[in-house]
Fold this protein.
Amino acid sequence: MNADPRSEHPFGGYGEARAFRTKDAWRDTLSAARRAVPAATRAAEAEALTLILRELAGELAGATVCAYLPVRTEPGSIACLESLREAGVRVLLPVVVSVGPLDWAEFTGPQGLRRGPFGLREPASPRLGVEAIGRASLLLVPALAVDRAGVRLGRGGGYYDRSLPGAHRAATVAAVVRDEEHVDVPLPAEPHDMLMTSVLTPHGGLRRLPQAGDSASTFA
């Protein structure tokens, strides 16, 4: 049996993490740990995620998935998105237009991307409106960490917390993290934080979190 990859977490068995009371303290430590990951490891993990999504694509053919374009050290790659699109999945990517909920546009391939007003890559295809998130049966959400209760730690912009209330109640909402970022200790949470139903990691695949209700999609 392979060792649990989370045992290499910077908090060393998670007990030390209890000293981190604030989201900012968690973000600082987790971001530093990500920056220390070798490029070859990140590439291997992105390839693992691509293979997982390629296998899931058979169940998702004809469905809509809300995903994201990785920024800096975020898990994933364009190849992950292509593995879904090439299998007949409609892939929507976020478009930041204001401080409100995210807008969405269809991913048509790498050649269909452009730089948005905030310097982030986004689809050049027509915007579909903030309500487009409600059409997705699977949402892949970037995160720095997620705990077993589904509490997600993001970068602090709040865009997903403002957008996820529009998701379909039966959708699978999966935080995408490295295996060691799926933590056992509770993350700090606020009333407005939206819970995840599932977690997607390179070595663990797509798994339902314990708090997920019966209404969650069968994809996890």
